Amino acid sequence: MTDLSKIASTILSEGSHKSEDSPRLIRVLLNGTYIFSSTETKLTWEHPYFPQYYFPLSSLSHKDTLTNPENSKEGYTIYDVKVGSVTKPKAAVLLNKGPLEGFYRLDHKVLDALFEEDDSIDGHPADPYKRIDTRRSSRPVKVSVDGVVVAEASWSIHLFETMLPVRFYLPRTSAKWEFLKPSETKTFCPYKGEASYFDVEVNGERKKDLVWWYPNSRMESLAVEGMLCFYNEKVDITLDGKELVRAKTKFG
Is pLDDT of 238 > 90? Predict the structure, then answer.
């Protein structure tokens, strides 16, 4: 569940990083009903990493969808979202002042679906100023954890994503599977899809979620579907005989 009070408070006190009009038809579904529908949303960056949609007052399909208002002295109102027998507590916030006055932010995690035009969007919207590219490479890659080689490949797919280090996706047969242990972790990327993970166990120590893969990649990243990727930030990678410096990002 998203803390909409905290988000609204931060937006009102510090402002958003960026906000712009979106021409896309954006709809939100709950319990078989489109509760918001608009071609006049604001694509808003609450932090530098990715945006969220903010909906104008006019996009609310039924006024009785929002119930149990809680007004804040800081200038926002929190609502429950109710459709029929289904109620999602504190799932919408209305900003009552500032540049986004009259716009709602929803907790999409607890609602049924968010659509851009006719495509369902899982997680958060993609950032239109970021992109990914993939390139096949015959430069050999070796991955080590605490001095133990856990994967070695004669080729890989290099994935280039804005503001992130190059990621090396290796064929599954390159892994030394005695070191990889299934993880229950799932994450979502709007550019690549839902990721599954493996832990790595070496020298009697299990390291959580060092490896991820996409069972069903999105169109932009079909080249890496089913392949394994290790966190550059947490393992030692040798590319074409040269050991790479570990990347430093928010992931490690």
Answer: yes
